[in-house]
Structures are given as structure tokens and as C-alpha cells.
Design a protein that fits this description.
Layout: E1 2-11, E2 14-20, E3 24-29, H1 36-48, E4 70-80, E5 85-96, E6 102-110, E7 113-114, H2 117-120, E8 126-129, H3 135-138, H4 141-155, H5 159-183, H6 190-226, E9 233-238, H7 266-287, E10 298-303, E11 306-307, H8 308-311, H9 314-336, E12 341-345, H10 353-363, E13 368-373, H11 381-384, E14 388-393, E15 396-399
Helix pairs in contact: 4-9, 5-6, 5-7, 6-7, 6-9
The structure holds adenosine-5'-diphosphate and magnesium ion (MG).
Magnesium ion (MG) binds next to helix 1.
Length: about 400
């Protein structure tokens, strides 16, 4: 995967940007608040249609432009896969809605044809490294679900749409649960939503079971290499509806036991999930929320038998995270036959000498990588000599003269 050209209009501080990107490694240097992170954010947005920095897409539209009654932020990319060259255009359109507010909609064109944003995820592929990414391990389960979702979405064309449908179903089902609690009514009304939830949920679970298994296998290998075979890294899926746990006797396996969830068919996951939902009707009406299902899934990350989220040291967590991200890249490559574009925002400062070395060596094998830094001293000259060095200055980007 190679990003050849990028144009931005009214995206963050870039009122207008046009750039041809070099293949291999591009090093973006600049002081703080010049637009380095925003540029990586734009490239990542082209792959995932989401930002890891903004809580709402509105924040991506240039401040000044967004004062107008109609504001459009536009991202356009030409990229090449093994097979062909494609053009992707995303428009974030903010317009007045008549009652004093405004609404935002997304339009996406892939090779000139309109396509739903959910279908366009992963047409272009990228993996992002951020300093604050240790959240994946240190943070709550939603951080690990997001890691998984973003990886799977880029390799499975239907995943994003299924996830959106599933989340919408959870909201609708929750609304009905609250209504049944407040106004009473026939519990049977839930059956329809249980069916939809289980159909979509089973698809998500099946994708997650497989992804965790496969990414986990790659991560063990990478982590072993990064730690001179001293540490064994393992990923464990803990689905909120678990097909291997019997609801009646609450039989639960110790985490270290290898559980073969991959053996369950889609239909088994679906019927098991539906049955469990039915058992929970009473309780869920009282609580007003759907208590099981992929929206509450968890993935635990263990190192030498220790749960890193609860007991990992800073150093251990950083190394495990590096293994996890490198495994994500390798996995995407295996699944799709394409090496994603690698985006690294000020990542080196976080790593010790040895890991930095490993990461930089890895990058030289990438098809294309874009790195940002405020501090060139982090890069050994034998590495920076292999990079194209560009300067970012108040939303302008130009090649360094030297
Ligand atoms: N929607 C926006 N419109 C205009 N400027 C923005 C917008 N969002 C962020 N900025 C500005 O862009 C700059 C941040 O750029 P950033 O990409 O984080 O810089 P860097 O990574 O080089 O430190 C900040 O000065 C911020 O105020
Ligand atoms: Mg930055």
C-alpha cells in the first residue's frame, strides 16, 4: 500500500495542502503545533474514517471555515495497491439544519463513485502509533475493543457496517428495556431485538475470535524476539456473552486454559446468544441496559502469566504494545496481501534504545512509513540518511533543502 498524493482542504489547520509523498520513509520535522499530528490524523482517517484525536468529526473541520453556514472539509488521496491505483475522496459537510443548529454528513467517493463510508473503510490501509497508545493496555476494555475493531475493520469489508448495525440495535433494545420498566408491557417484544442483536453480534464475535487467535500467534513470536525470548505474550478473548460458559452453573475456565472458541459455528454463537438474552429479560428490564454482547467484550493481555493491565510495569507495557502493533501490521499484511502505510507520531521518545533500534530496523522493511518528530536527535544518522526529510511549519510542508 502506498499513498502517492494527498490533498486537504479545510482539514484542521490546513486550509489547503497538496503533497506528493515519497515511497519508503518520510520524516516530518517541526516545532510543536505546526500540523504534524494533524497530517497523520488525516492519513489515518482515509483508512478508518475515524480520528484517534477528535471526539467528533466536526473538530476536523477548519475553525474558520466552520463559521460559515456551509463548511466542507475535503480529504483526497491517490494510493496504489499491488493491483491498481485508486482515488479516495472524503467530504465532511457541515450545514445549517434550520433550527439554529448544524448537522454533519460524510460523503465518500471511491474512484469517482459514491460509496457508503462504512463500506469504504480499509480500501486504503494504515496503522497508527501514538505515544498515548499505552492506553490500549492500561486503559479500560473500550480501548482494547477499539484496537481490535480498527484492526479488523481494515481486513474485513463488512465489519464496520455490522458493528454500526449492532450498536444501533443495542440502543434500540435499551430504549425498549427502559420503556418496559417504566410502562410495563409484553416482554415478548424483546424477542425481535434479541434476534437482530444475536445475528449481528455473532458476526462480530466470530471475527474477534479469529482475529485474537491470529494476532495473538504473531504477537507471541514478535514479543519473544523483542525480549530475547524472556517473555511470553498472550492475548485472551473474554466475550461478555461466552459460548463456553454454561449459564446455569456459571462454569468458568481459568484464563490460562486454552479455550477453543473457534470451533463454534456462526449459528451456534447466534442461538446460544439469543437463548442467554432470553434468560436475562427480567434482570435487564430492571437495569434498563443490555448487559451481554460484543459491546462489553474484553481482551486481556498477559506476559509470563501476569495480566499487564493490572500488574504490568511501564517498560513491560511499552514493549508489549510495540509487539501488539507490529503484530497488527503483520496480520493485516497476511489477511489482505497489502502492507499498510505506517504512521508514527512522536513514538520514538517513548522507547528505550533497544526497542527504538528494533522499530527503526522494522520500518526500513515497510513499503511506506511517515514519522513525525520535534527532535532529530532521536534518530541515528544511519537511519535518517535513509529517510526523506520534510519540514512542517504552520500548516505548510516542504522538503528540507539540506
Ligand atoms: N479544526 C481546526 N482548525 C484550525 N486549526 C486547528 C484545528 N484543530 C486543531 N488546530 C490547530 O492545529 C495546531 C495543532 O497541530 P498539530 O497537528 O497537533 O501540531 P503538531 O503535531 O505539529 O504539534 C494547533 O495549533 C491547533 O490549535
Ligand atoms: Mg503532534
Amino acid at each position: 500500500m502506498r499513498l502517492n498524493h494527498l490533498s486537504l482542504t479545510n482539514f484542521r489547520l490546513f486550509s489547503r495542502l497538496d503533497m506528493d509523498l515519497p515511497s519508503q520513509i518520510l520524516l516530518l520535522e517541526g516545532n510543536n503545533a505546526q500540523g504534524k499530528t494533524s497530517l497523520l490524523e488525516a492519513i489515518f482517517f482515509l483508512a478508518t474514517f475515524t480520528s484517534l484525536h477528535a471526539s467528533h468529526d466536526r473538530q476536523l473541520i477548519n475553525f474558520l471555515a466552520s463559521q460559515e453556514s456551509l463548511a466542507v472539509a475535503r480529504l483526497t488521496a491517490s494510493f496504489a495497491t499491488q493491483e491498481r491505483e485508486s482515488r479516495l475522496e472524503i467530504r465532511l459537510i457541515q450545514e445549517l439544519n434550520g433550527n439554529g443548529g448544524s448537522r454533519l454528513r460524510k460523503e465518500v467517493l471511491l474512484n469517482g463513485a459514491k460509496i457508503s463510508p462504512n463500506q469504504a473503510v480499509g480500501a486504503f490501509k494504515a496503522v497508527m502509533f501514538l505515544p498515548e497508545m499505552t492506553r490500549i493496555i492500561e486503559g479500560g476494555p473500550e480501548e482494547r475493543r477499539r484496537y481490535l475493531n480498527l484492526a479488523i475493520a481494515q481486513s474485513n469489508r463488512n465489519y464496520t457496517q455490522t458493528l454500526a448495525d449492532y450498536n444501533q440495535t443495542v440502543s434500540q433494545r435499551n430504549a425498549l428495556l427502559k420503556q418496559l420498566f417504566e410502562r410495563g408491557g409484553d416482554e415478548k417484544q424483546l424477542d425481535f431485538w434479541d434476534q437482530v442483536l444475536a445475528t449481528k453480534g455473532a458476526l462480530l464475535m466470530q471475527a474477534r475470535i479469529q482475529a485474537i487467535e491470529e494476532i495473538g500467534e504473531i504477537a507471541i513470536r514478535i514479543h519473544s524476539a523483542l525480549t530475547d525470548s524472556k517473555e511470553v505474550l498472550r492475548l485472551y478473548y473474554q466475550p461478555a456473552y461466552d459460548p463456553v460458559v454454561q449459564p446455569q452453573n456459571q462454569f468458568s475456565l481459568p484464563m490460562q486454559t486454552k479455550v477453543e472458541r473457534g470451533q463454534f459455528t456462526l449459528e451456534q454463537l447466534q442461538t446460544g446468544f439469543t437463548a442467554r438474552l432470553a434468560q436475562l429479560h427480567r434482570e435487564e428490564i430492571l437495569r434498563g441496559v443490555t448487559t451481554i454482547g460484543p459491546h462489553r467484550d474484553e481482551m486481556r493481555i498477559h506476559c509470563n502469566g501476569i495480566d499487564l493491565t493490572d500488574f504490568g510495569s511501564r517498560g513491560q507495557i511499552r514493549t508489549a504494545l510495540l509487539s501488539l502493533k507490529l503484530a497488527e501490521i503483520e496480520w493485516l499484511k497476511q489477511k489482505t496481501g497489502e502492507m499498510p502505510v505506517l504512521l508514527l507520531d512522536e513514538t520514538l521518545a517513548e522507547l528505550d534504545e533497544a526497542r527504538r533500534e528494533s522499530l527503526l530496523t522494522y520500518l526500513t522493511s515497510a513499503e511506506q512509513a511517515v514519522l513525525t518528530t520535534t527532535d532529530m536527535n532521536l534518530f541515528p544518522t544511519n537511519f535518517s540518511g535513509k529517510c526523506e526529510r520534510w519540514w512542517v511549519d504552520q500548516g505548510n510542508i516542504h522538503k528540507k533543502d539540506s
